[in-house]
Fold this protein.
Amino acid sequence: LRKDFMPHDLNDRLVGLLALNDKTDLNMKPVMMRVITDLYTSKIGHSPDEASQFAEIAGRLIEHVDEDTLAIVAGKLARYAEPPAAVLTLLLRHGDGAARAVLEFWPGIERQHLAAAAAHGPAREAEAVARRADLDADLVALLARRSEPNIGRALVENPQVKLDEAQRRAEIQRGRSDEGLARALLAQELDAHEAAPLFIYADADMRAAILNATRSADQGRIGQFDDQPLSPALMDLERAALGRDWSRFAYWLGRCLSLSIADVRRTMADPTGQTLAVALAAAGAPSSMATRIFLCREPAISHSFAIVSGLSALVDSLTQEEAGALVDAMFGASRATPRTGGGHVPLHDPIAASTPSRPQHGQVHVRPLRGGEGGATRIAQNED
C-alpha cells in the first residue's frame, strides 16, 4: 500500500489487517474494503495515481467480500462526486445489491447498461433503474412494459417521471391486485373515473368521489324502493350469510358475479364492508337483504347500527348496472361471464357435492358482464 494515498497511521493499520488476515482464520477483507472506500470518498480531488491505486486495491478485494458489504461500498462510490468508473463497472458486473446501487445512483453509467436492465434484467435491478432521477422517455417506456408491480411503483413514485396516459392506465390495471402500487397511484391525485379500479384501496374521500362518478347522472336508485323477489342464487347467498357459512357465501358471491376466488376474498376482506356492499348491489341484492347480511358479519360491522345502515344505504344508492360497472372496473380482467341460465353444476365441485339438488341451480338475475365462460369454481377459505 502506497503511503501517498493515505495517512501513515491508516496505512499501518491496513498493513496490520493484511498480516492478521494471513495469520488467522478471520477474513479482514470486508473491513479493509469499507476502510479504503471511506478513505477515498472522504476527499475530493484525487490524482490519477491515487485513483489508479484505489482501483487496484478494490479490484483485488471485491471477489473476497460479502454481498452486504459490496452493496454498502457501491452505494457510497456511486454517490461520490468523483465516482471511480473502473470499480463501479466491476461492482455492476457482480450483481445483487451492489449492481442495484450502481444502476440507481451512478450518473456516469453507460446507457446500454440501463437499457438492458430496464428491458430484461432482474426485477429488482429494473426497479433500481426506475428510481433514477435522469430517466428519458425511452427508458421509461422500457420500464413501463414490465409487468412486475414493484417496477411500476418505483416509476409512479419517481417525481421526475411523468407517465403518459396509456402507461398510467396500464399501471392502474396492475394496481388492482397490488396494494403497494395501488396506494402509490392513488397518491398521484387520480380523478375519480381513473381511480375506480382501485376502489378497494382508496380512502373515504376518493371512494365517495368514485361512487358519485359511477352513479348515472348522480341519480342512482332514487325512487326505486320496491324489493323484487330474490333469485335462487341470491336466496342461497343470503342463506349462507345467515348461517355464517362464509365459505359457501363466498362461493355463491363468486358464482353470481363470476369473480375468481382471490377477488372474492379481497372483496370480503375490506374492513369497511363497502366493497362487499358494491358487490351485493351488482348481484342485484336489495338493501333489505344487504342489511340482513351485514348484521351477520364481524362485530366491527354488525354491532354498529350506523355502519350497517350506511352500507345498506350504499347498496340502495346504486343501480345494478352502476355497481356492476364498478365491480368490472375493479376485477374485470379476471372475471368471466355470469351464469344466467340453469346450468349444470359439476359433481367434482366440493360445494356442489354438499348442496341439495335444485332444479334451477344457476338462475341469477344479473346483467351479463364481459369475459370468458365460467365462474368461481373453488371454495373460499372460511372467513370466520
